[in-house]
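Something for you to look into today, if you have time. Just paste the record in under my message, thanks.
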Amino acid sequence: MSLLERVEAARRGKAAKQAGAAQTDAVVPATPPPAQQPQQPQVQEQAARVSKREQNFRAIRIRLEEAVADSLSHLIDLSDPQGVRAKMTPEIDSFVSDYIEEQDLSLTRDERTRLVQGVIDEVAGFGPIEPFLADSSVTEVMVNGPDNLYIEQSGKLRRAPVKFDSEDQLRRVIERIVTKVGRRIVEASPLVDARLADGSRVNAVIPPLAFTGPTLTIRKFSKDPFKTAYLIEFGTLTPEMAELLRACVE
């Protein structure tokens, strides 16, 4: 066999091997992805127990709020919310302790603390949005019905991990807020735009003007207002613009 014939034979053999390898790859099925393991029954049972306990805790809190509102109504002064909280906190703490003992309730220390705080927020504050109003990092609170609460915190909008128990609770909070600024919100006048004592803007709407339930928006203002240096740093103003404004005011 000549050299040319041997080279040609080697080429044909190599081509045959490549064709066989490609055919083998084509017929071998791809490894299927591992199937997701079904959730273990123990995990499902634990989640159900947690949910049931949370529902029971919520029912206890609602009953306590009603009892406290009836028994300690003489201590409630909406014109002085901070004074009310200071005055009512020991009273509510004692009331909750007596209630837990009378009803023989099994509550953890954390649940008892949450219970007292929740009752105080409802009776002397603004319910589930009270912690956000007290948090300086939260700049806006938006309530679109009892189940949809959003907050703007550190410049980012996110859904709040709380909700109102009912439309009635949300309506009471709205009435409490507008009462503080000497306004009323009723079906005949279902919209209120107001400004709170700290400068925060409030917009509240109730049915029939609000189609999906009462809505509430509170735009808070920073206790440390922006100064000229901040505006220049943010790029809102240039130093030349700031100097022109200063000269115009002077």
